[in-house]
Specification:
The protein is α+β, with helices and mostly antiparallel strands. The chain is built from one helix and four strands.
Length: about 70
């Protein structure tokens, strides 16, 4: 059965070089699996995205893939 394509991200904010929070691949994949109501991601693409703000940045790991339920 073909699954639905989902995209999700795990981000952290840094202010003056001090990180607040933890960005993680696991968080991003878990969000995508939950959104697609599945257990496995196939054809997954992972990328890193950084957005700069006045005194810091937001750094994210972004995953996109097809979510399939194997149960």
């Amino acid at each position: 059965k073909a699954g639905k394509r989902e995209k999700a991200e795990g981000c952290k904010f840094s202010l003056l070089g001090i990180p607040f929070g933890i960005r993680s691949l696991e968080t991003a994949v878990d969000k995508a699996l939950q959104a697609g109501n599945g257990t496995v991601m196939v054809d997954q693409v992972t990328e890193e995205k950084t957005t700069w703000v006045v005194l810091g940045n937001i750094n994210c790991i972004v995953v996109e893939g097809t979510v399939v339920n194997t149960k």
